[in-house]
Amino acid sequence: VQLQASGGGLVQAGGSLRLSCAASGSTYRINVINWYRQAPGKQREWVAVVSSDGTTNYADSVKGRFTISRDNAKNTVYLQMNSLKPEDTAVYLCNAEDTWFDYWGQGTQVTVSS
After folding, report:
1. What are the Cα distances from residue 1, in Å, to 6, 97, 106?
2. How many angstroms separate the CA atoms of 2 and 18, rounded?
3. Where are the extended beta strands (E) located within the chain?
4. Which percentage of the chain shows pLDDT scores above 70?
């Protein structure tokens, strides 16, 4: 499984961005796809998850502002981020899990200016 994250950029506080995570390869094996983020000098933080049946869950820090969704026809997972805050600034990474392995994409930078 290969993952390609995109959609990051620079946005003002209160703005929105939509991240994409395109999966290729043996995508039928994927059980869940997560978004994580890592800010400079901080530990990697889990952000959101969508499972193969469409169940979603969010970190408290983004609940109500971020929405994760998936387009199975395009093998792509999206993270719609609204009401962005400076503390959302980080490299955002997508992660896929199957029964045996974790797979990681390369990350996309999100910078929120105050």
Report:
1. 17, 10, 13
2. 20
3. 2-6, 9-12, 17-24, 32-38, 45-51, 56-58, 66-71, 76-81, 90-97, 102-104, 108-113
4. 100
Using alpha carbons, select from 74, 109, 80 the residue that is nearest to residue 93.
Answer: 109
Beta strand 2-6 with 17-24 is antiparallel
Span 23-71, pLDDT tens digits? 999 888 899 999 999 999 999 999 999 999 999 999 999 999 999 999 9
Residues in the chain: 114
Which residue type occupies 103? Y
Q: How many CB atoms lie within 10 A of CB 94?
A: 29
User: Per the structure block, which two tokens stand in for 112?
Assistant: 């929120």
Which one, of 18, 13, 3, lies nearest residue 81 by Cα?
18
Backbone φ, ψ for residue 88 (5° rounding)? -85, -5
Amino acid, single-letter form, for residue 34: N
